[in-house]
Design goal:
Layout: H1 6-9, H2 23-29, H3 51-72, H4 80-107, H5 111-132, H6 135-145, H7 148-151, H8 155-170, H9 177-203, E1 207-210, H10 220-226, E2 233-236, H11 239-248, H12 252-263, H13 269-288, H14 293-298, H15 306-339, H16 348-361, H17 367-371, H18 376-391, E3 393-397, E4 409-415, E5 421-428, E6 440-445, E7 448-450, E8 453-455, E9 458-462, H19 478-495, H20 516-520, H21 528-531, H22 546-554, H23 560-577, H24 589-600, H25 617-620, H26 627-645, H27 650-661, H28 669-677, H29 684-689
Parallel strand pairs: 5-9
Antiparallel strand pairs: 1-2, 3-4, 4-5, 6-9, 7-8
Helix pairs in contact: 2-3, 3-4, 3-5, 4-5, 5-9, 6-8, 9-13, 11-16, 15-16, 15-23, 23-24, 27-28
C-alpha cells in the first residue's frame, strides 16, 4: 500500500511552478536546504532544526504573492495561463516544502525535525484549505470559465478547468459564507486528526517476549537477532519481526498473543481519533449536501457513485468466495494432520502458519529456501534492469548523496534516447526506530512545465525490509519482492511524468486507479524471464532452479481466495464506516470490524482486538480502499498485453510509458486503459490470475 502526497493535494483545489520565487525566499534559500534552486537537489544532510518552519513561512509568503496577482487581474484580461496555470503555480511553490517536509516527518532520525515536518504539513494543509475556500480566487476561476476564451479549451486544459470547478463545488461554493466557513473549520480539523492518527501508529511501540519453545520453527539468524540476556526473545511489531513469527512459530499460543498485540496497535487512543475523523467527515458532507462521505468520495473517481462500488465488491466477493472456501478446507486438512484432531475452524493467527505447511507438504515449497534466492542487492539490480529495459531509461547511482540517513541511497534517471536527465529517486529500505513502518512512495519533487523548463520530479521509496546483519545479508521473502516491484511502480509513475501541470503529474490520477500502474508491475516477480535477472542464491549466485520456480508457480494461488476476501473485507469495512455508520450510535467501529470480519473473511474475529486503530488507510483512503481491488482488475487486464507480446517487450513497455505513465491524470483513466488495450477492459485476466477457470 502506498503513501503518496498527492492524496492530500487532490483533496484540495489544484496544484504548481518554480520560476516565480520571490527574492526573499531565494536569499533564505542560500542557507535553508528546503529553498533550493530550480532543478537542484535538496541538501538533506544540511537540514537542521528550524529550517522546515522557516521554509514553510517563506513559501507561504511567495504563494500569497501569486494569489494576489491572480485576484488583482482584470476579468476581461484573464487567460488560461494567467489564471489557471498561476493557480497551479501556487501549489508548485508550496509543494517545494510540503512533500519533503512530510517525508522528513515520517523518516528523519531526529525527533525535533520529524515534529517540525509534521507541523509544517499541518500548517500547509490549513493554508491550502483556506485557499480552496478563498472566494476571490473562486470568482477569478468562475469569471474565466464564463469567458469566450474558456470555450476554446481542449485536452488537459479543459479538463483542468472542469476539475477545478468541481473541486470548488465540493468545497461548498454555491453555499452561504456561513456554511463555507463551517467547511473550512471541518477541513482544518480533519487535517489535524489525520496527522494525529498517523503519528499514533508510527509512534506505537510494543514487544512480545517469548521462550525458546515458543520461537521454535524460526531460522537461527532470526532468533540470534532477537535474543535477550535472560534467554527470552523480543518480538516487536515491525513487519520483519511480526510476519516471520506468524508464519513459522510452532506455538499456536504465542502466535495468538502476537496477533492480539499487533491488532491492538495504537489502541485505544486511535479509536477515539477515528471516531472523530468519521464524525467530522459526516459533518462535512452534511454541510455540502451529500448523503454520505462515500457518495462524496466517489463523485470524482472512476466508480462515480457508491452503488457501483457496492456492486463491484459484492460481485467480486461472490466470484472469489468458492476459492476461499476451498482454501479453508485445505488449511483444515493440514491443521487436522498436525493436531490429530477433527478441526472445524481456522483462526487468523493460524492462516500464515498452515499456509506454509501446505506449501511444504503439498508443494515441497520451503519459504526459507525461497528467501535464499532473493538477496536485497540482487533484487535491486534485477528490478532496475527490468524497469530500465521496459521503459528505455538508465539509473545512475549518486556517490555521497545528501540524504537524511546513512542508509538512504540516491539515483538519477536518464532517458536513453535523448540522454537527458528525467528525474531522481531515493531508496530508504530498512527499518529503524520512529520511521514510517510500511512500504510507500513519497513525493519529494513533482513534475511540471515552467518557463525555466520542466521540473525534474523526485520520489523517495520508503520500505522496511530485513536489514543485513553480521549473521546474513538482507534476504527478502517473495512477498517482499512483490512489494518492492509494486512500490517502485509508484516511483516510476511519479518520475516519468510529463504532465504540464502539477495537478495531473505522476500519480495524480483518480484515486481508484492510482494503484493500477504499480499493481501491473508486480507480475514481473512471477515470470521466468525476469526472475533470471535477479533470483540468484546469495551464496552460490545460482539462478533460481526451474524446479523451485515451478513449485512457486504451482503454489502461487494457495490461499488466493482468502487473501482476496481479506482485501474485500478491508474495502467493505472502509466503505461501511463512511456510509451509514454513526460514531454516536449504538454500534462501535469495533462492532463493525467484528461483524464484517466474521461475515466476509472466513476467519473468526479475535475478541478484544481493534484492527481499525492501526488501519492507516482509513485516514488516507477514507471511503476509497475499494480502489485496491478495483484497480487490480485493470492492472491484470493491462498485463495481459505483456503476456501476449512478451514480458520484456520493449515496444509494449514504451507504449505503457507513453500512454499510462507519462500522461498521469491529464486524461480519463478509463480512456487511457482502453487506448493501451485496444479494446474494452474486462475482469477475465484478474480472475485467471487468482486461479479461477476463466476462458
Amino acid at each position: 500500500m502506498q503513501k503518496i502526497l498527492f492524496a492530500i493535494l487532490l483533496l484540495t483545489l489544484s496544484c504548481y511552478n518554480l520560476n516565480n520565487v520571490r527574492d526573499n525566499a531565494i536569499s533564505i534559500g542560500k542557507t535553508n536546504p528546503f529553498l533550493y534552486g530550480f532543478n537542484e537537489t535538496i541538501p538533506f544532510n544540511d537540514l537542521k532544526q528550524g529550517d522546515i518552519p522557516e521554509a514553510t513561512n517563506a513559501v507561504i509568503i511567495d504563494a500569497d504573492e501569486i494569489l494576489k496577482q491572480i485576484i488583482d487581474l482584470a476579468n476581461d484580461a484573464r487567460t488560461f495561463d494567467n489564471t489557471m496555470v498561476r493557480i497551479d503555480d501556487i501549489f508548485n511553490i508550496i509543494e517545494k516544502v510540503w512533500s519533503p517536509g512530510y517525508l522528513m516527518g515520517s523518516t528523519h532520525p531526529n525527533q525535533e525535525i520529524r515534529e517540525e515536518g509534521l507541523e509544517s504539513s499541518r500548517k500547509i494543509q490549513k493554508y491550502v484549505t483556506d485557499l480552496s475556500l478563498n472566494e476571490d480566487l473562486y470568482n477569478a476561476v468562475l469569471s474565466f470559465s464564463n469567458s469566450k476564451k474558456s470555450q476554446n479549451l481542449s485536452g488537459y486544459k479543459k479538463k483542468f478547468l472542469n476539475d477545478t470547478l468541481l473541486d470548488y463545488k465540493r468545497r461548498g461554493f454555491g453555499l452561504s459564507k456561513e456554511k463555507r466557513d463551517m467547511v473550512k473549520g471541518i477541513l482544518n480539523k480533519l487535517s489535524d486528526l489525520g496527522i494525529e492518527f498517523s503519528k499514533n501508529i508510527s509512534d506505537f511501540q510494543d514487544t512480545l517476549f517469548v521462550t525458546e519453545d515458543e520461537i521454535n520453527g524460526l531460522p537461527e539468524n532470526y532468533k540470534m537477532e532477537r535474543k535477550m540476556i535472560d534467554g527470552t526473545f523480543a518480538i516487536d511489531m515491525s513487519y520483519p519481526s511480526y510476519v516471520p513469527f506468524m508464519d513459522f512459530s510452532i506455538s499456536d499460543e504465542a502466535r495468538e498473543k502476537l496477533r492480539y498485540k499487533f491488532q491492538n496497535r495504537a489502541a485505544p487512543i486511535n479509536l477515539n481519533v477515528l471516531n472523530n475523523i468519521i464524525r467530522k467527515r459526516r459533518e462535512l458532507v452534511s454541510v455540502l449536501g451529500y448523503s454520505t462521505y462515500a457518495e462524496y468520495r466517489t463523485e470524482d473517481r472512476m466508480a462515480k457513485n457508491p452503488n457501483n462500488v457496492w456492486e463491484f465488491e459484492n460481485d467480486l466477493r461472490d466470484k472469489v468466495r468458492p476459492k476461499a472456501e476451498q482454501d479453508i478446507k485445505e488449511m483444515l486438512k493440514m491443521k487436522a494432520k498436525t493436531t490429530g484432531e477433527n478441526e472445524t475452524t481456522i483462526y487468523s493467527w493460524e492462516a500464515g502458519y498452515y499456509e506454509n505447511l501446505i506449501l511444504k507438504d503439498n508443494f515441497q515449497l520451503d519459504q526459507e529456501e525461497v528467501r535464499q534466492y532473493f538477496e536485497f542487492n540482487n533484487v535491486t539490480n534485477g528490478l532496475f534492469t527490468v524497469y530500465q529495459e521496459l521503459f528505455n531509461i538508465t539509473f545512475r547511482k549518486i556517490n555521497k548523496p545528501s540524504v537524511w540517513h546513512e542508509d538512504v541511497l540516491m539515483y538519477e534517471v536518464f532517458d536513453n534516447d535523448s540522454k537527458e536527465l528525467i528525474g531522481r529517486f531515493y531508496l530508504d529500505m530498512f527499518p529503524r526506530a520512529n520511521k514510517y513502518g510500511h512500504a510507500a512512495a513519497f513525493s519529494v519533487t513533482i513534475g511540471k512545465m515552467t518557463k525555466s523548463g520542466y521540473t525534474k520530479p523526485a520520489t523517495a521509496l520508503v520500505c522496511n525490509f530485513p536489514k543485513p546483519t553480521e549473521y546474513q545479508p538482507s534476504l527478502l521473502t517473495h512477498d517482499n519482492v512483490e512489494t518492492y516491484f509494486h512500490e517502485f511502480g509508484h516511483l516510476v509513475h511519479g518520475v516519468l511524468t510529463l504532465s504540464p501541470l502539477m495537478y495531473y503529474a505522476g500519480t495524480a490520477v483518480a484515486r481508484d486507479f492510482v494503484e493500477a500502474p504499480s499493481q501491473m508491475l508486480e507480475n514481473w516477480v512471477w515470470e521466468k524471464e525476469s526472475l533470471a535477472l535477479f533470483a540468484k542464491h546469495y551464496k552460490t549466485n545460482e539462478v533460481i532452479p526451474d524446479e523451485l520456480l515451478d513449485k512457486m508457480l504451482a503454489a502461487k494461488n494457495v490461499n488466493s481466495g482468502t487473501k482476496a476476501l481479506q482485501q474485500i473485507y478491508y474495502g467493505v469495512l472502509d466503505f461501511t464506516l463512511h456510509s451509514d455508520f454513526d460514531p454516536d450510535g449504538d454500534k462501535t467501529t469495533t462492532d463493525i470490524v467484528a461483524s464484517l470480519q466474521n461475515e466476509i473473511t472466513l476467519y473468526p474475529y479475535q475478541e478484544g482486538t481493534h484492527k481499525e486503530a492501526s488501519f492507516g488507510h482509513l485516514n488516507g483512503y477514507g471511503a476509497a480502499y475499494y480502489g485496491y481491488k478495483w484497480s487490480e482488475v485493470y492492472a491484470q487486464d493491462m498485463f495481459s498485453i505483456f503476456e501476449e507480446k512478451g514480458v520484456m517487450n520493449k515496444e509494449q513497455g514504451m507504449r505503457y510509458r507513453k500512454i499510462i505513465l507519462e500522461k498521469g491524470g491529464t486524461e480519463d483513466p478509463l480512456s487511457l486503459v482502453k487506448e493501451f488495450l485496444g479494446r474494452e477492459p474486462n475482469s477475465n485476466a484478474f480472475l485467471r490470475n487468482m486461479g479461477l477457470n476463466i476462458r
